Amino acid sequence: MRRLVVLFMAFLPLAMIGQNQHFKFNQDGEFASLSANTSPNSNFTLQVSRGFSTASGTSASISYTSFDIAPDFSSFTVIQITGAIPSSALTGQNTQSLVLNLDTTSQLDPNSSINQSCFVDFINFIVTCVAGPQGVIHLEFQENGVQRTRVLALGEEITTGPITTRIHQRSDNSTANAQGSIFGTPVSSGSATVGINHNSSIEVIRN
Length: 207
Prior knowledge:
Blueprint: H1 2-15, E1 21-27, E2 30-39, E3 42-53, E4 57-69, E5 75-85, E6 90-94, E7 97-103, E8 113-121, E9 126-131, E10 136-160, E11 163-182, E12 185-197, E13 200-206
Antiparallel strand pairs: 1-13, 2-3, 2-12, 3-4, 4-5, 5-8, 6-7, 7-10, 8-9, 10-11, 11-12, 11-13
């Protein structure tokens, strides 16, 4: 799967010429994250976090990416959703119980978020990008405390095709159970993470 992802990223920039966006979000509060395989050829990663600023008050942001390879390996689809979401979409008073309930149909602002789905035809080497999925992401996170970690200072820059993500993080983390659904597909995992971000940030640049 890794080789196909690399091949996909080699062609994706050609489909994204002329689309420039730059978002930065402060993350200072509860967060939850989850990575899982949904089939032998499909996987996703998701992180949702609260933030706070004196100018805008309480806020929240999401970063979601999924990859899906056709059974005959002739095509590849990637979905990316990143940006600001309503603070009401992430509920729970502490990390013991957090609930994400996001409707991408009505709760994503195109001025402060990205929601796209790109399809790659490996036979003809054609990339087609369209608006991302419309529907509900509903996940419930329950802290289980099996393992606890502390991130003292993380600085990371990840470039995937035309998208660069810069992460600066200080946080206290714990393992968690997660269950729910993403666009109608059931999700259940005992290896999720919940925690508290301390003056962290995520920056997303699409060239």
